[in-house]
Amino acid sequence: MALKIIASTCSACGACEFECPNAAISMKGSAYAIKASACTECDGDAPKCRAVCPVDDCIVQA
Predict the structure, then answer these.
(1) pLDDT tens per residue, range 1-41
(2) Which residues of 21-40 are buried (b: 16+ CB within 10 A; e: fewer)?
């Protein structure tokens, strides 16, 4: 399964992009997006993107 960024809540701060060990996060329009085929949810560890995201409930299960 993969994570998803809710575009309407994304502040476009960019913190998540640099924390992703799979380079699955990139800017798409005015918000960041997660490429589902590359997201491994940090292989069972706590997702690093969620840990650094300043917006609650921005990154959710797809």
Answers:
(1) 899 999 999 999 999 999 999 999 999 999 999 999 999 99
(2) eeebbeeeeeebebeeeebe
CA 36 – CA 39 distance, rounded (Å): 5
- In the 8-state DSSP scheme, what is residue 4? E
pTM over 0.70: yes
Task: Provide the sign of the torsion angle of the four alpha carbons 25, 27, 28, 33, taken in this order.
Answer: positive
Instruction: Give me the phi and psi of 25, to 5 degrees please.
Output: -110, 130
Find out whether 40 and 46 touch, Cβ atoms under 8 Å: no
For residue 14, give the CATH number of its domain: 3.30.70.20
Q: Which domain holds residue 41?
A: 3-61
